[in-house]
Amino acid sequence: MFKEATLYSPVINNEHGRVSVIFAKDHPGYQDRPYQEHRARIAELALRHRKGEPAPDIPYTEAEHETWHTVSTELSAKHRVHACREFIEASELLDLRHERLPQLSDVSARVYPLTGFTFGPAAGLVAQRDFYGSLADRRFQATQYIRHPSFPRFSPEPDMIHEVVGHGTHLSSNRWATLYELLGKTVRRLESDEAVSLVSRVFWFTIEYGLVKEDGRTKVCGASLLSSCGEMDYFLGADINSFDAAAMGRQGYLVEKYQPVLFRAESFNHFEDFLSEFLTSIDDDSELVAA
Fold first, then answer.
1. How confident is the model over 133-174, as pLDDT tens digits?
2. The whole model's pTM is what?
3. Which of 11, 74, 110, 164 could form a disulfide with 168 if both were Cys (CB 3.0 to 4.6 A apart)?
4. What is the pLDDT of residue 2?
5. Counted domains in the chain
6. Which among 105, 108, 134, 227 is annotated as catalytic?
């Protein structure tokens, strides 16, 4: 399994304008030169992108289209069993096709009429305040590469499958879109890094890895869970706790393997209310920040 350092493969833009992506030795693309060069070209297009313009079209390979087809088809079947009702309804609105990997600009064009959110390209890791802050403008910064075909069922890097299947579906729902925007506005008004770090942890255990009760069953609503075939098989084996911001703030999380601890809301209404109350009440002097 990947190590934590592999979460983002750093993008380097040297003084000569040459863009490269640095892969850790345990990354499945470490010895795959064509994949590395392809990732570098995608990163370069993102770095050249100007805000407000459509995301650049990526010349995806047939292997990448096949990875998308395989993973998205399997995920769709798992969603019918495990995804919460709000996600299923949003996925019907977004109506992603399994045959070919979509362009980010096309996803953005589909989401915008639904909720006013747009997608812009990210070359790799986006600074925390920049990433969250852009949500206040209903803009989501997304990567455009796809996971290595040799390791399709889980990716510690947030690739197009994660961005589109997970967050793209979320942002097709007005209820979720409102929460994302509120999160962005919250980060923009916070001054302390400690407070932003707490918000990030709560984001992780709600938006990314949250669960809800629905008709007496545990259902998945987090974007990371919903975009990982492996996590969808594993989540019921995790230690599942009730929603609690203080506990989320204390809980460590893993990026290189499946989450051993998850949190569950009593309903999607509770999910909304919990996150809205936390985001509107948190400030730099909050007791939760100091805890």
1. 999 999 999 999 999 988 887 776 889 999 999 999 999 999
2. 0.92
3. 164
4. 31
5. 1
6. 227
Q: Is 89 flagged in the annotation as binding? A: no
Asked whether residue 79 is marked as a ligand-binding residue, the answer is no
- Is 162 annotated in some ligand binding site? yes
Q: In the annotation, is 227 catalytic?
A: yes
Q: Hey, what are 260's tokens?
A: 């051993």
239, 260 Cβ separation under 8 angstroms: yes
Decide if 155 contacts 161 (C-beta within 8 A). Answer: yes
Tens digit of each residue's pLDDT (9 = 90 or more) over 61-106? 999 999 999 999 999 999 999 999 999 999 999 999 999 999 999 9
Q: Structural domain of residue 260, as residue ranges?
A: 4-290
Which of 79, 82, 162, 170 is flagged as catalytic? 162
38 classed as catalytic: no
Active-site residue among 167, 172, 173, 214? 167
Residue 140, domain CATH: 1.10.800.10
Give the chain as a 3 state SS string: CCCHHHCCCCEEECCCCCEEECCCCCCCCCCCHHHHHHHHHHHHHHHHCCCCCCCCCCCCCHHHHHHHHHHHHHHHHHHHHHECHHHHHHHHHHCCCCCCCCCHHHHHHHHHHHHCCEEEECCCCCCHHHHHHHHHHCEEEECCCCCCCCCCCCCCCCCHHHHHHHHHHHCCCHHHHHHHHHHHHHHHHCCCHHHHHHHHHHHHHHHHCCEEEECCEEEECCHHHHCCHHHHHHHHHCEEEECCHHHHHHCCCCCCCCCCEEEEECCHHHHHHHHHHHHHHCCCCCHHHHC
